């Protein structure tokens, strides 16, 4: 198989392999890029662990730090990982509450890919003696993934982890 046949739908990707990548310091969903799923006939999870997410408190302007967990079941399109990294970096100067940030991220990824299922979980480091860990998810309406989303939402935190290193 030639490179051109194997990577024919990758020609629209502008960030992957680009050594001159511009870093955007304010929220910008336009940086996200997608490519074709090579296995649309199969349901499988793709999971991103993002341990260096930062945003700003919209009231105080103080930085907030989190590990984000993004899991999705693709359909036709998938998010390109470098564009996701740059997109998440664009939150660096974004003023948003934790709950708002995870929902914005999920909504932008739904708009980009139209996945079968997606969930975003933010585990933020404590400020003022409290940590906030918002979780949101979505399953395509009218499919088994809608029921899956409801089940996972109702059961996502039945066994909270022991937090001793934040």
What value does the Rg take, in angstroms?
A: 17 Å
Strand segment tally: 6
Low-confidence stretches: 1-6
Under the CATH scheme, the architecture of the domain at 43-155 is 2-Layer Sandwich
Distance between the termini: 48 Å
The helix-strand sequence is HEEEEHHEEH
Structural class: alpha+beta
What keyword list fits this structure?
166 residues, alpha+beta, GTP Cyclohydrolase I, domain 2, 4-stranded antiparallel sheet, two-stranded antiparallel sheet, 4 helices, 25% helix, 25% strand, flat, QueF_type1, EC 1.7.1.13
Structure description:
This protein has 166 residues and is of the alpha+beta class. The protein has a domain at 43-155: GTP Cyclohydrolase I, domain 2 (2-Layer Sandwich). It is built from four helices and six strands, in the order αββββααββα. It has helices spanning 3-6, 81-89, 98-113, 144-155; strands spanning 34-36, 46-56, 63-73, 77-79, 117-124, 135-139. The protein has a four-stranded antiparallel β-sheet, sandwiched between helices. It is flat. The N and C termini lie far apart (48 Å).
